[in-house]
Amino acid sequence: MTVSGRTVLITGAAMGMGLLYAERAVREGAREVLLWDRNAEALEAAAERLRGLGSSTVRSWSLDVSSLAEVSEAAQAVLVEAGAPDILVNNAGIVRGKYFWEHSDADIDAVMDVNSLAPMHITRAFLPGMIDRRTPARILNVASASGTLSVPKMSVYTASKWAVIGWSDSLRLELEEAGHGHVQVTTLIPSYIKTGMFEGARGPLMTPLMEPEYVVDKAWTALLDGKARVQLPWTVPLGSALRGLLPQPVWDVVAGRVFKVYQSMDHFTGRPAADPAPAAPATADPAPAGQGTRTGGEA
Questions:
Q1: pTM, whole model, 2 decimals?
Q2: SS3 letters for the chain?
Q3: Catalytic one among 157, 192, 214, 262?
């Protein structure tokens, strides 16, 4: 599958990895590139930048993807103006990095709504059109390596990404089983990425923080190829395999003392409170230090 002449919709598209996906779509000749993000100012700046890169029609919608009402309204506008997208990238994500009992009810709701429920509601809004059109279509769901391994100080974020992985891969199988194989689903499962979302976090042993451009390139290629899963870097599938093979007490020693997975969030700070409001859909107020908010999901 190629992007040329097709419609691409990206959430969390105003900056970071979302903007990198959008740039890739424009440079590869997409007919229309549709941008969703909460930060209206950054979104408009991104749209203007993208219009200067190629001939794609670039449209933008400012909305909070944690609001089902806003998602439904924006999706209806997209269907009327551009039709169902050929490629959907569920990229927006947020994190709250602290012990579970330090989360407020609002923290829990925000993380689960943005990371888990929003991709489901957004995909549900467009999937019937993608199925009925009977032409090749692709969905990329951004999960996280923390959705495969337990990590202290990431309990709610980890739960949200476990949900994404289970839902995304089940959706892939359902589409195949129902005879809708022209719609293919890819799940991206990366470790920490240098986007600022996980500022202060340290990658486990042999797991360096990855450059956003590298991850986007791998994910984009896998998306177009219809690959089911992308795990980055190589230590992510290794960790998952060891976790499944080793008894829990042994795994706790390996993860905690050898790979240092359990200590990876010890120095997490997130985006500083003084920074401008982030691009990703989130709660109504900017995240204070220690509560990172950014496009894309990683770790």
A1: 0.87
A2: CCCCCCEEEEECCCCHHHHHHHHHHHHCCCCEEEEEECCHHHHHHHHHHHHCCCCCEEEEEECCCCCHHHHHHHHHHHHHHCCCCCEEEECEEECCCCCHHHCCHHHHHHHHHHHHHHHHHHHHHHHHHHHHHCCCEEEEEECCHHHCCCCCCCHHHHHHHHHHHHHHHHHHHHHHHCCCCCEEEEEEEECCECCCCCCCCCCCCCCCCECHHHHHHHHHHHHHHCCCEEEECCHHHHHHHHHHHCCHHHHHHHHHHHCCHHHCCCCCCCCCCCCCCCCCCCCCCCCCCCCCEEECCCC
A3: 157
